[in-house]
Amino acid sequence: MGKTFTYPKRSTNTVKRYAHRATYDVAAIHSIVNSSQVLHVSFNPGPEDPFPTTLPMIGQMGSFEYPSADLGEPLDCYIHGYVSMRMANIARDSEEGLPVCISATKVDGLILSLTPFSHSYNYRSAVLHGYAKLVTDNEEKEWAMKMITNSVVPERWDNSRTPPEKSELSSTSILKVRIVSGSGKVRDGAVSDEKKDYQDEAVTNRVWTGVVPVYEVLGEPIPDSLNKVAKVPDYITSYVDSRSQESREYAIAATKINLPKEEQH
C-alpha cells in the first residue's frame, strides 16, 4: 500500500467545532476542491484597504513537475484570472508569494429535524492556505490552462481551438498556490435530535423529519445560435450523464438511510 499523506495540524487549520467531522487527509481535501466549480480565494489587498478581498475563481489541484501525481499526493493549486486583476499584481511583486486562503463547499442534503436548532446540511468543505505566485513559464502556463479547461468538461481542451494564441496567453494570468496547510469537514447521515424530543409524541406526530438530498444536475446541452456542429459530441453528453448520476448517488448515499430498491434509482 502507498503512503497516505495528511496536512499537519496547525493553529490555522485545526478544526475545533465538531472536530469529529474534520479530515486532514490530502486525497479527501483535494477531491472536494477539484469537484467544486467555483473556489473562493481570499487575500489581504494591503494596508490601505482594511477589508479582506474574496474572489470567486476557477481552479484545480495539480503538479506540473509530476503530472501523473494523484489527488492523494502533495499538489499545488492553480487558479485562473485576468492578467491585470489586483491579486495577480500583488502576487507579481511578492518575493515569497501572496498569502491566500482557498475554500470550497459542496452541499449534499438538507437535514430537517424536529427542532430548528437541530436542522443542518449534509456537506463537504475544504480550506487551504498557501502562497500564490504568478506562473511565468509558458509551458507550465499552458499546461495549467489545459488542466483547468478540462475540469469544466473533460477533453474540452483538445476539442476546441488550441493551442492558444500569444495574445490569449499574455492576457491571462495563472497563479500557482504552494499549499502549506489544509483541512476538510464532512457531515453525512440522517436526522439527529435529542432523546426528549423523540419522546414527545405531540411533536413527533406533527413534524416531518428526514433528509432532502441536494445534488447537481447538468441540463441538456443547448447549441449556440452560431453553432454548426449538428450533433452534440459524445464526450459532452457522456460527461453530462455521468456527472449528474454520480452527484445524485453520492447525495442519496450520504443520507445513510436505507431506501427501498425502487427508490434508489
Can you give a write-up of this model?
The chain is of the alpha+beta class. It has a single domain (19-215), classed as Roll (Pnp Oxidase, Chain A). It is 25% helix and 28% strand. It contains seven helices and eight strands; from the N terminus they run E-H-E-E-E-H-E-E-H-H-E-H-H-E-H. The protein has helices spanning 26-34, 86-92, 138-152, 166-171, 195-198, 201-204, 234-254; strands at residues 22-23, 39-43, 53-62, 76-82, 98-112, 120-134, 172-187, 210-213. It has a six-stranded antiparallel barrel with strand order 2-3-4-7-6-5, surrounded by four helices. The protein is globular. The relative contact order is 0.16. The mean pLDDT is 93. This is Flavin-nucleotide-binding protein. Pfam families: Pyridox_ox_2. InterPro entries: Pyridox_Oxase-rel, Split_barrel_FMN-bd.
Features:
single chain; 265 residues; alpha+beta; Pnp Oxidase, Chain A; six-stranded antiparallel beta barrel; 25% helix; Flavin-nucleotide-binding protein
Give a nutshell description of this structure.
With 265 residues, the protein is an alpha+beta fold.
Query: What is the SS-derived class?
Result: alpha+beta
Could you tell me the CATH topology label: Pnp Oxidase, Chain A
* Widest β-sheet, arrangement of strands: 2-3-4-7-6-5
Sheet having the most strands: 6 strands, antiparallel, barrel
Low-confidence stretches: none
What is the global morphology?
globular
- Please trace the helix and strand order, writing H or E for each element: EHEEEHEEHHEHHEH
CATH class: Mainly Beta
CATH architecture: Roll
Tell me the count of domains: 1
CATH superfamily: Electron Transport, Fmn-binding Protein, Chain A
Number of strand elements: 8
Give the distance, in angstroms, between the N- and C-terminal Cα atoms. Answer: 34 Å
What's the helix count? 7
Rounded mean pLDDT score: 93
Helix content: 10-25%
- Give me the Rg, rounded: 22 Å
Strand portion:
25-35%
